[in-house]
Amino acid sequence: MADPLIEDILVNKKKTLSVSDISAMSKEELIDKVAQLQAHNIQLRNIIAKKIAPPCDAVGKGRDFDLSKCPKMHVFLRILYLGWNYQGFACQEDGNETIEFHLMKALLKSKLIASRETSNYHRCGRTDKGVSSFGQVISLTVRAAEPGKPPLTYCKMLNRLLPNDIRAVAWRAATEGTSARFDCKSRSYKYYFPKSTLNLDVMNDAAKHLIGTHDFRNICKMDVANGVTTFVRNIADAKVSTINDDEGGYQMCELSIVGNAFLWHQVRCIASLILLVGQGLEDSSIVKDLLDVEKNPRNLNTS
Length: 303
Hints:
Layout: H1 4-14, H2 19-24, H3 27-51, E1 72-81, H4 99-109, E2 122-123, E3 133-143, H5 154-159, E4 166-173, E5 187-194, H6 200-208, E6 212-215, E7 232-242, E8 252-259, H7 266-278, H8 285-291
Antiparallel strand pairs: 1-3, 1-4, 2-3, 5-8, 6-7, 7-8
Helix pairs in contact: 6-7
């Protein structure tokens, strides 16, 4: 249906005044006519401005942008980062040098989200200070392209704003409500170290004791202050292996651990234990003994 105001303006424009009509007008009539035409011109501009709003993907400097009017889409986003220059992945109240801080800053600046609180944001896991990740995954609801237009280039948009050692490498659409944290089936961590004089056989003997469902309260850092009182976790796989040939006399190894979820500093404590076993400073049975919480109980108030 046509806008009545536009129809009225078009009707008035059809009443074309001839030169003789204008010449016959008094000064007051001419002033009234000019004022009337100016008013119609302003009204028409306002109508056109409302009907032809800038598209949601046209984010630029100096442009008014209303994110609430844009289409939305829930996505998984894969992040790669080198962590040695950062204080860990998760945001901290007393510092800005975290991966998540820079990621949120880029998401906000690119107008992909209005705020963290309203974006349905979840992370698959968190890494400690200095730890890198080649497969961190987050889920969130972001601004989407207008219907009929190509998808937004999320990785390219974010990488223009992120530090060089933090990269968005892939994304895919997800069902609304799916969570990178709660719907994750497994998480894997790897520790790399030189073989040196380590005994890999006894290290693997120790690692085998980790596989299965156990109470890991003796092999983690207590986080009771944040409500963590259950320490039972499942480890699907744990092993030590070499990752390159010993041609240069310097062989590297990796400790690989796969599980559904991990406790605070659990992986770090496991790595420390396995390395002590490899150095001959502990017996491989130390892992089995620490997992026996009846034999070696730990007060939940200790850290």
